[in-house]
Amino acid sequence: MSSTKITTILFLFFISFTCYAGDTMWKQSQRFEEKGDYEQAASAIEHAASTDNEYAVLRYAYLKYKQGEYNDSIEYYNKAIKLNAKSLDAKLGITLPYIAQGRWRQVKVYTRQVLTKSDWDYTAHERLMMAEDGDKKWHSLGRHSGKLTTIYPTDATTLAYHARAKARLGNTPVASAAYKKVLMREPDHAEANEYLENN
After folding, report:
1. What residue numbers bound the domain in which 185 lies?
2. Alpha carbons 146 and 88: distance in angstroms, whole number
3. Cys staple from 76: which of 3, 61, 66, 174, with CB 3.0 to 4.6 Å?
């Protein structure tokens, strides 16, 4: 057998082994995640996340968030943003550890960046409402959620935020009407039922 053929066979073997190893790495990570073992799920892709593999960095950031390692999660989401400044996934992703830490200003910064690119992105709006709620910005939350109820009229979450804002502002008739709409969509909604029982 010629040296050229041997080299070709070895090259193909190396490529096949590399692809198989990579496939195994992702499968292992996903299987650990399915079992709720986020630490092992992250460990399986840790080396890939140390490179410029954007998907690995994003996944590792998310798995660090699931472990409660919020600062590490933020670090890797920031790395993902540096790798791809246009990534909405990264900008939405980084809000997760910030929400967990109650860092509402940062949540607002990143959700608004997403909304400049995608006006009615539901996840961005939902997390922005969470930040307004966390900051007790009831007027802002009331206006924001009010607009969203016309865009997402079947959504109970948006209506619940609108009702809560109006309740905190002392507008009982509007809050009650909104909570009744919540119950049409989610009859067992605890907050809505409690409010209407007491008002």
Report:
1. 136-199
2. 25
3. 61
